[in-house]
Amino acid sequence: MKIKLTFLLAAIILVLAACSSDKSDSAKKEKTVATENNQQVKGVKTTKVETLTGNEFTLVAKEATLQLNNKVTVNAWTFNGSVPGSQIRVKQGEKVKIHVKNKLPDPISIHWHGLPVPNTMDGIPGVTQNAIQPGETFTYEFTATVPGTYMYHTHQEAVTQLDKGLYGSFIVEPKEKTYDRDYTLMLDEWMSNPDSMSMSNMEGMDHSNMEGMDHSSNSNDQDSSNSNSMGHNMNNYDVFTINGKSGDLTEPLKVKEGERVRIRLANIGYLSHNIHLHGHKFQVVAIDGQDLNQPKEIKDQLISIAPGERYDIEFTANNPGEWYLECHGDMKGSDGMKTKIQYEGSSDSKDTSNQDKSLPIFSYMNYGGTKNGEFTLNQNYDVEYTMDLNGNNTDNIWTINGKSFPNTKSINVKKGDLVKVKLINNSPAGVNHPMHLHGHSFQVLSKNGNPVKGSPIVKDTINLEPGDEYVVAFKADNPGNWLFHCHDLHHATAGMIDVIKYDGYKPSFTPDSNAKNKPE
User: Fold this and answer.
1) What are the two backbone dihedrals, phi and then psi, of residue 11, each rounded to the nearest 5 degrees?
2) Which residues pair with 374 in a beta bridge?
3) What is the pLDDT of residues 466-504, one digit of tens each?
4) Which of 368, 362, 263, 355 has its CA nearest to residue 305?
5) Strand order across the 303-305 sheet
6) Residues 168 and 125: beta-carbon distance below 8 Å
7) Integer Cα distance of 309 and 381 in angstroms
8) How many percent of the chain have pLDDT more than 90?
9) Which pLDDT does position 224 carry in this prediction?
10) Beta strand ranges found along 270-377 (DSSP E)
11) pLDDT at 23
């Protein structure tokens, strides 16, 4: 009897050991998977984007695997386990507190793109704070004063970290809404084979003397050895996404007949995207978070959204069925950047994709009802400055007025100054520069010598195609050291950064040489 019992126990132990081995092997397969794009992906899968409301939030930066489409899965860096990260929605005038916990292997930060926050909260490592180290927490606090569509994203080694998905949307709701449904679509590009373009080749330049923005001497040109001689090939971005998904995985936008629908289009990527709404007239109601005056209805016009820009459109759901909202163009990933407007209770539609069709592109230069803005072209200004944007992909050196950061000549202002800036893109054909100003919004006064008509246009990011010349103006009302840079961050990393410096301002943090601060 004892012998039989011994054999029975031994058999049970062997079975349990085998099961344990199977589970262990299964776990390993879940953690490391060879995908069709031949990338080894690790960790847990991304979750659905959640919406956070209230006035105190926690964002946890951590790794996850992201399925972009039916063929491509990539390793991603996330806020709260999703790409985009959790959407933050607050009320106008609300004081917010955001705790950022870093569970990634590298330092990070968060920049509140477009939001007029205090300089200490701008999230620029080495300029306004030290980067948030692995295992550490940093708390951002500010008041959400201006309603609109904004973004948040890392500003530490941003080319690399944004490419991995470290971003989200930030919505400041107005006191009175004009819409029934509200969707936010973050546009981005991914590489199905990230190894085809080494991220280390895009870091470009040495920012070691940036700490605290104490670089008073601008007398020497940047040493070309600090720049990447290989340039960057945007053709490697071959999967275009809406909220982290492409093709069949993109979620439809549900509406009911009769509803007023707002769609917030935010470009967090590095390429411009031409978006077409099928089957409906619509209004462009806001640009870069700033409302337009008396926007008029338009139809079958492409909304061209450059990196860093946001466009809010509204339409009345009065045409039941299914209708495409899609990117037009012939770039490799354009086909995947589409979704559908789906009416509840109605699936009958004969709409087809027409992404290769040439349609007029919307222009804000003469749109909406005429209204006096804060600034005019011919008034007196305290500071006038010209930014000549130039460079080339061959050497991957990008300059402002012939200098690459940190040797660019800063724009020195005093609080209360009225500032007029002329921006000119003298770069080679095909090279756009979406220039983004931190901490302020500016009014667009003219393009190529032609003044803006219709609604005043107030922005924080302006896209210059080759040969373009824009004149913009703003009031220096937010003391600090503020970046004014190209939001194709490959260009910023390679030198296209200027700084607005307020006289007498001193950073309140102590730069840490061990923090590995890399603000671009």
Assistant:
1) -65, -40
2) none
3) 999 999 999 999 999 999 999 999 999 999 999 999 999
4) 362
5) 253-255, 338-343, 322-328, 273-277, 303-305
6) no
7) 27
8) 79
9) 28
10) 273-277, 283-287, 290-291, 303-305, 310-316, 322-328, 338-343, 366-367
11) 37
CA separation for the pair 300, 298 (Å, rounded): 7
Terminal-residue alpha carbon distance, the chain? 75
Confidence of residue 228 (pLDDT cuts 50, 70, 90): very low
Q: What is the CA radius of gyration of the chain?
A: 25
For residue 231, the model assigns a pLDDT of 52
Helix (H, G, I), strand (E, B) or coil at 367: strand
Give the torsion sign (CA, 20, 26, 32, 34).
positive
Q: Does residue 31 have a pLDDT over 60?
A: no
Distance CA 383, CA 363 (A): 28
- Total residues belonging to the chain: 520
Residue 216 CB neighbours (<10 A): 8
Q: What token pair was written down for 429?
A: 């054909």
| CA atoms of 341 and 277, how far apart (whole Å) | 9
The two tokens of residue 515 are: 């923090």
3-state DSSP assignment of residue 146:
coil
Q: How far apart are CA 380 and CA 473, in angstroms?
A: 11
Of residues 441, 437, 433, 450, the one with CA closest to residue 491: 433
The mean pLDDT value for 338-360 works out to 92
Closest by CA to 485, choosing from 404, 420, 395, 393, is 404
